Amino acid sequence: VATSDGGVAIGVDVGGTKALGALVDTQGAVLTTHVVPTPAEGEPLLDAIAGLIVELAPAGRELLGVGVGVPGLVDGAGVLRFAPNLPEIVGLGVTAGLRRRLPDGVLPAPARLVADNDANCAGAAELGFGTAAAESDVVVVTLGTGIGGAIIAGGTLVRGANGFAGEIGHMIVQFGGEPCQCGKRGCWERYASGSALGRFAREAAAAGRVPGILAAAGGDVDAIKGEHVTEAAAAGNDEAVALFDELAFFLAQGLANLAAALDPGLFVLGGGMIRAGEALLEPTNRCFATLLEGAEHRPIPGIVGARFGYLAGAIGAAALALGVGAAE
Ligand SMILES: [Zn+2]
């Protein structure tokens, strides 16, 4: 990572409802943050991101780069091609649009401006400053409403031919299975994400199996969400632990598929669901070891929790702007 002492970077994490910007130093420490609502359309979104950058631009310290993470397919030219949760935005030139908007002097000439998928940003945060910092081959899996992925091979983020590598949530694990936002059926994220956890919990509640979780959701089966289960598991609730056992089976299947393809030395799990801690990690490691090809004859990669929580995307966008995960 080529940086100079005292320099800083700005990372912006664009979510479906809000955009979080952070000023980050070269050690990954967050100095300040700023949040704005996410506009639903492209040009207003670029205006909002540019406003965040101007707001966070450091006085008296060198700005080394700006990174923007967005929830969708971003190509190598910084164009957001498709974002399932921002359906009105298609083919938006993020880096080009920001360059036009930023006032002179905000982004000095050598500073980088990059845009990338939000899960790649979370991966860069862990690679640059977190749990994956000592690893060269690792898969960072973000477990939220869906499943995002960042594949790191030989210390470099794998981008694929078009920049779209790491869409691991849409690997098909159940032929003809549950319908997915992407238009297909049986995608991994329908079985092992926070929304899948919510579905398992609603099914269990309807069958009378999880009265405590049902009560926590106000007694309404349809109001149960994955977050209810995660919070209950974090508090050691047995009903929630049993639901995580169920989810871990599906989670481990996808991880075993990734291990077959990539042979990583480590899996790092992040996103909101990791708040469940060992209730998630213990059964996932246990199931994974039974599914890994030749497990008795090879090192079994660990499955561990991410260092960064809700700031991962912004820290990682800044990390990418600092050159973390870039090819030599
Ligand atoms: Zn899908």
Secondary structure topology:
Blueprint: E1 8-14, E2 18-25, E3 30-37, H1 42-56, E4 63-70, E5 73-74, E6 79-82, E7 90-93, H2 94-101, E8 112-117, H3 118-129, E9 138-143, E10 147-153, E11 156-157, H4 189-192, H5 194-206, H6 211-216, H7 226-234, H8 238-262, E12 266-270, H9 278-291, E13 302-305, H10 312-321
Helix pairs in contact: 1-2, 3-10, 5-7, 5-8, 7-8, 8-9
The chain binds zinc ion.
Notes on the structure:
The chain is an alpha/beta fold and 328 residues long. Helix content is 35%, strand content 22%. It has helices at residues 42-56, 94-101, 118-129, 189-192, 194-206, 211-216, 226-234, 238-262, 278-291, 312-321; strands at residues 8-14, 18-25, 30-37, 63-70, 73-74, 79-82, 90-93, 112-117, 138-143, 147-153, 156-157, 266-270, 302-305. The chain has a five-stranded mixed β-sheet. It has a five-stranded mixed β-sheet with strand order 11-10-9-12-13, sandwiched between helices. It has a three-stranded antiparallel β-sheet with strand order 5-6-7. Helix 8 (238-262) crosses helix 9 (278-291). The model has no long low-confidence stretch (mean pLDDT 95). Bound molecules: zinc ion. Zinc ion (ZN) binds next to loops. Zinc ion binds next to loops.
